[in-house]
Amino acid sequence: MQIYALVLLTLAGLSSFAIADPAAPSNARTAGQLFRRYCVSCHGNDGKAKTSKGRFSHARDLTDPQWHADVSDERIFNSIMNGRDTGGNMPAFGNKINEKEIDSLVTFVRGLKG
Ligand code: HEC
After folding, report:
1. Around 25, how many Cα atoms within 13 Å sit in the side-chain half-sphere?
2. Is the beta carbon of 87 within 6 A of some atom in ligand 1?
3. What's the CA-to-centroid distance between 23 and ligand 1, angstroms?
4. Going by C-beta distance under 8 Å and a sequence separation of 6 or more, which residues neighbour residue 41?
5. Nearest CA owner, ligand 1 atom 3
6. Per-residue pLDDT of the chain (114 residues; tens, 9 = 90+)
7. Neighbour count for residue 28 (Cβ, 10 Å)
């Protein structure tokens, strides 16, 4: 009886592992990869938005210390998630990048401070 329960538990453990597996870490994208893929075209490798697309869309200089001092993490998160068009045209990324990844991008953007 005991061994039977053990086998069942093991099987349950294995199957939940198998189900969880496809979404597992091999797909995880680092903030650096995300930034290169989705953000560099406008904001540039250095975050200064000196690219032609950056100038054209009036992208923000993400290194500006004054801006860093004024802006909250929540607003950065929200701008990446939903876009922002107060002075330029920042696209929304909520459909391409999940919330955990956006969190990691907020940290990444903080690291660009000049
Ligand atoms: C098509 C060009 C473009 C792309 C691509 C782009 N941005 Fe932007 N970004 C902008 C523009 C334009 C603004 C200024 C928006 C405004 O304030 O009206 C901006 C502003 C921002 C801000 C400041 C928002 C605020 O609340 O002050 C952050 C942070 C930011 N972008 C991060 C990112 C990240 C991270 C990515 C990649 C996931 C990205 N951007 C991709 C154009 C772009």
Report:
1. 0
2. yes
3. 28
4. 51, 53, 54
5. 42
6. 565 665 555 545 554 444 444 444 557 899 999 999 999 999 999 999 999 999 999 999 999 999 999 999 999 999 999 999 998 999 999 999 999 999 999 999 999 999
7. 11
